Amino acid sequence: MDFKVSSLLFIAILCLISSTSTAFNITKILAQYPEFVSFNDLLTQSGLAKEMSSRETITVLALDNSSIGGLSGRPLDIAKRILSAHVILDYYDQIKLSKLKKASTIVTTLYQASGAADDRQGFLNISRTAEGIKFGSAVKGAPLVASLVKPVYAQPYNISVLQVSEPIEAPGIENMAPPPPPAAVPKKAPAPTAKSPSKAPAPSKVEPSTPTESPTEGPVAADGPVADVPTASPLADAPMADETTAEAASSQMHAGGAVVVIGLLACMMGF
Ligand SMILES: *[C@@H]1O[C@H](CO)[C@@H](O)[C@H](O)[C@H]1NC(C)=O
Ligand SMILES: *[C@@H]1O[C@H](CO)[C@@H](O)[C@H](O)[C@H]1NC(C)=O
Ligand SMILES: *[C@@H]1O[C@H](CO)[C@@H](O)[C@H](O)[C@H]1NC(C)=O
Ligand SMILES: *[C@@H]1O[C@H](CO)[C@@H](O)[C@H](O)[C@H]1NC(C)=O
């Protein structure tokens, strides 16, 4: 009895930990601003909102209802490519932008992390100009089409939302072959193998790269396994020490084990 209750508690805590490992929910953040309703809808429909939630550090260049018009008429997969190039994999708020030393800075976007980008389509050029901060595709010759309108939301140093004046469309982004099938998306794949001990070395090899250039697959994938691995042992050991005979203990262990498995499954599916 007690054992089951404590197992359930333990699972509840685990679930809580794994769900709070999401740094932010862009859908909820944007829901506070009616002018970004269409932009927010597109992020949800295209699945980008979900992809963003597995990131720890992003800057979203948001388009309000009046400037997103052209994008919402496009096929969803193309709108997704274009919008994913509005998600910078680094933190830039207005303060940081105003302190940029160089006249222009190249930043990496979520489109680059998708692996579908060609040339410099997955990068943006942020430039200081006489008219203020401007954004454009980093592809050679692409214009700085969008101006910074205003900062919308900031949660340093995990997420910043900046409103920009126009969609930024990398030349040729709409002509590309369809993005690779879902199997090529690396983020969620490691979850089912969480219990395999061979996962351990993975996170360490990401350290030396610079934060801007490396898509953060490594650390992201590591979240699940780290949380999951220790579950079995503490559960099995802790509550059994003094109270019962061997048979009772083993049957409780079975019940407890089943509860753990069901709980973890539920947890993963909800996740
Ligand atoms: C915020 O980002 C940092 C890395 O930039 C990360 O270590 C931290 O866990 C993130 N915070 C949350 C709540 O995820
Ligand atoms: C973010 O919040 C929305 C609405 O509040 C919810 O439907 C969605 O599942 C949440 N996404 C994540 C990844 O938690
Ligand atoms: C933006 O458009 C959506 C639907 O297209 C609408 O519900 C919302 O009220 C609009 N917001 C503003 C500020 O115009
Ligand atoms: C960014 O764009 C501006 C204007 O097109 C260009 O002059 C500058 O060289 C670009 N910066 C980089 C690093 O490519």
Structural account:
There is one protein chain. The protein is globular, with a radius of gyration of 23 Å. The protein has helices at residues 2-20, 26-31, 37-45, 48-53, 65-72, 76-84, 94-98, 110-113, 217-228, 232-237, 246-270; strands at 58-62, 87-88, 104-108, 123-129, 132-137, 146-155, 159-164. The two termini are 28 Å apart. The protein has a 7-stranded mixed sheet with strand order 2-1-7-6-5-4-3. The relative contact order is 0.15. Helix 1 runs parallel beside helix 11. It has 11 helices and 7 strands. The protein has a domain at 20-175: FAS1 domain (Roll), CATH 2.30.180. Bound molecules: 2-acetamido-2-deoxy-beta-D-glucopyranose (4 copies). One 2-acetamido-2-deoxy-beta-D-glucopyranose binds at residues 22, 25, 27-28, 50, 53. Its main location: membrane.
